[in-house]
Design a protein that fits this description.
- The structure is a single chain.
- The protein is mainly alpha-helical and about 160 residues long.
- It contains seven helices and four strands; from the N terminus they run βαβαααααββα.
- The protein has helices at about 20-25, 40-50, 55-70, 75-85, 90-100, 105-115, 140-159, and strands at about 10, 35, 125, 130-135.
- It has a two-stranded antiparallel sheet.
- A hairpin with a 2-residue loop joins β3 and β4 (about 130-135).
- α3 (about 55-70) crosses α4 (about 75-85) and α4 (about 75-85) packs antiparallel against α5.
- It is globular, with a radius of gyration of 18 Å.
- It starts with 9 loop residues before the first strand and ends with a helix.
Length: about 160
Amino acid sequence: MHPETPPEGKPRNMSGPSRVDVMLEREGLPFTERKFSYNSRSAQELAKWAKREGREDAFNAAVYRAYFVEAANIAEPDVLLQLVEEAGLPVEEARRVLSERPFQQAVNDDWQRCYSLGVTAVPTYLSEGLAIVGAEPYEQLERLVTEANAKRLREAADA
């Protein structure tokens, strides 16, 4: 969500673990302390392609592991191509996707939709005009769904 991040990444100025790190640890998910943030634009475009190929979950899992567990620079084409291979996708077609960028507009559209909804951070959970921004405990997500459902039912009853 930060297209200004250079390909080599930018240092994370943290004086301790981030909220995301704390949540990952609490949930028992693997991660490592990352010293850099990397531009995820190419990974997002490849994820659109992976979805079309029916391998979105495998690719996204590989990107998660690379970024959050291995602190790999997911802006690097060689890193992305390795992740493509791990996800069982054809590497040569991925090279074409990276060079020709046929999914650029789809990602642009996603970003524009996010900006129009006020989404400025990942993760953001939206439902019925209600939102949670950032990594939150399961109970917060459950509350969002409950409140959104109640709002939907009220609006349906008023219609």
